[in-house]
Specification:
By secondary structure, the protein is mainly alpha-helical. The protein has helices spanning 7-77, 83-117, 121-144.
């Protein structure tokens, strides 16, 4: 009894098995990337909602602090408050404003991250650069005259 196998057949079969393994690996990596994108999207949207809510609360506190400063200055003018109380109200007002500005920055950064995940940042930047370039060309032409 004699058994003969063509050598090319096993090499082709091994290549096919390796190609199938690469395909399965690529599909798994694509699924993982898709899941990571979905998780990133959910997290960024949640972060944005929290930043919006936080900024609203801090803005309310900031506005109340501005009113406190205004009232304290009025009390000081009529002699019902001392300089320390007025300075303390002003200092609290300045701190509230800093917190408010920081919350606004955090809100805008979170919004940009959501836009980036949605794929809307690059087209917007390209359009902005085009319009800016056109404006620069127009202003350069006007300056040359």
């Amino acid at each position: 009894m004699e058994l003969s196998l063509p050598l090319g057949f096993s090499a082709e079969r091994a290549e096919a098995v390796q190609a199938r393994a690469r395909l399965i690996r690529a599909e798994a990596q694509a699924a993982i990337a898709k899941d990571q994108h979905r998780v990133g999207w959910v997290n960024q949207c949640r972060e944005f909602r929290l930043a919006v809510r936080n900024a609203a609360w801090i803005q309310e506190a900031f506005e109340e602090n501005r009113e406190r400063v205004r009232l304290e200055e009025g009390r000081f003018r009529i002699g019902r408050s001392n300089a320390f109380q007025m300075i303390q109200a002003g200092d609290d007002g300045a701190n509230a404003e800093i917190q408010y500005r920081n919350a606004e920055v955090q809100k805008r950064v979170a919004a940009w991250k959501v836009l980036k995940l949605a794929g809307q940042v690059e087209p917007w930047l390209q359009e902005t650069l085009k319009s800016t370039s056109k404006q620069m060309v127009i202003s350069d032409e006007g300056a040359a005259r």
